[in-house]
Amino acid sequence: MEAKIFKASPALPPPSNSVGPVAWLRANLFDGWLNTILTLVSIYLVWLGLSFILDWGVFSADWIGDTKEDCSGDGACWVFIGAWMERFIYGFYPDEQLWRVNLVFFLSAAVIAWLVIEKTPWKPWVGLFSVTLFPAICFILLYGGLGLEVVETYQWGGLMLTLVVATVGIVLALPIGTALALGRRSQMPLIRALCTIFIEVWRGVPLITVLFMASVMLPLFASAETDFDKLLRALIGIVMFQSAYMAEVVRGGLQAIPKGQYEAADALGLSYWKSMGFIILPQALKIMIPGIVNTFIALFKDTTLLAIIGLLDLLNMVKTALNDPEWLGGYSTEGYIFVAAVFWVFCYSMSRYSIYLERKLHTGHK
What is the reported pTM? Predict the structure, then answer.
């Protein structure tokens, strides 16, 4: 009897309504009559909001002009932002010296790009340059000296001042905070006590109080001949304040390292500093990336408190522009939207880069 050979039918693709975007919509937004109604109502409300925002901010807005008389429509007056853009970025920095600030912006962007892009050569040397000679070059360009006209810090303002304060605070708070965290975990009682007291005192005081104390009290501890610059006082207060918070972030990362790593370093005969530098801290820093970046973002946003000691950062430069007699008439919405957009761009960029670093350096700590 001849055996019959059955051939398997080829696999058919799944129904189009069970995979892809259509399936996701059915499973998440239209999986019942209640969710369908809520989805349609939400779409309608979003459409109303977007149509109003687009009409006010784009289609009916005024974009070209130099004075408030050029804002005759019912929409946003972006002429206000354009007319004050230079002050929003540079503060009251002299117009003929703006090339110095632009040069600092360009050099900073070049150094950051060199360190961030993966395949650039000589990264260790560029990193060493960025923490040694580069800060001195930026200070000379911004402040003056060596043949450049001196521009006092009370003329600094806007986005430039925000970036200067945030960058100095970020660069200095991490190493100081790391040293404080190591000191708090030290086996020497005196060092541990001093670091603990420093951290708890600074974390227990609001930043606004720290700025007041740095501005008013710090000069009293110096000699009469010493002239403490107001910006320098603010930087000292911000660095000390952020270092205390950074110390706790670092301490949390150190405690997350298994005890076996410490014992392995001791078994290899490594000294305390070698074990910390080669084994413990590299692992801890990878774990601490979210906390470190969160502290940096908080510091960047806290620069708006500089107004209480008379320094005009980006936000407070916008407030100054709103009080200008030539622009009275209610342009605060445009100004605050501009400030919010600038802060969002910088904070979001730091957040996304931290996520990239987490994925790149991930070695099982999840």
Answer: 0.84
